[in-house]
Amino acid sequence: MGRVDRASRVIEAPAETVYRALLDREALEAWLPPEGMRGRIERWDPRPGGGFRMVLTYLDAADSPGKTSEATDVVDVGFADLAPPERVVQTAEFHADDPAYAGTMTMTWDLAAAGDRTEVTVTATGVPPGIDQAAHEEGIASSLANLAAYLGAAG
Hints:
Alpha-D-Glucose-1,6-Bisphosphate, Chain A, domain 4
């Protein structure tokens, strides 16, 4: 089956609230960038077949050089499937001169409701081989922690 990167977290919010945060431009800019990065969405079309472009900027480029430029990673994300409030499937195409970092990965966000809480599991397949698996899973976990904090502050 190949490489699968995965991370999960229980979020103290109902599945509908979590689902909305996966499809809200301002919310994504706030919580999606992992620790050590900030993000800016340049294009936004939240529908099946639509998507967005996010520019991720490293806060310390000396420690973590970018894949698109010295300090940035650029990714075009497509919404492959939207199944409210249980799942969002995205395709993420990375822009990089180094083929080890370029390519399209699929990220599936599964939301399992448990009353007023939601277990969110992110599964990534087709991850470009230059992306270290442990670092990628740590980045996904960081984004999930940001999502939990964002929804805690929003609630």
